[in-house]
Amino acid sequence: MTAALIQARDMTVSHPGADLPVLSHVSMGIQPREIVTVVGPNGSGKSTLVRALLGQVALTSGRVERARGLRIGYVPQRVHIERAMPMTVRRFLSLPTRVSDAQAAAVLERTGVPGLEQRQIAALSGGQFQRVLLARALLNDPQLLVLDEPTQGLDQPGIVAFYRLIEEVRQETGVAVLMVSHDLLVVMRASDRVICLNGHVCCEGTPQVVSAAPEYRALFGAEAQGTLALYRHHHDHDHDHVEEHVHGPDCGHHHHHREG
Ligand SMILES: Nc1ncnc2c1ncn2[C@@H]1O[C@H](COP(=O)(O)OP(=O)(O)OP(=O)(O)O)[C@@H](O)[C@H]1O
Ligand SMILES: [Mg+2]
Question: Which UniProt keywords apply (predicted)?
Answer without folding.
Answer: ATP-binding, Cell membrane, Ion transport, Membrane, Nucleotide-binding, Translocase, Transport, Zinc, Zinc transport
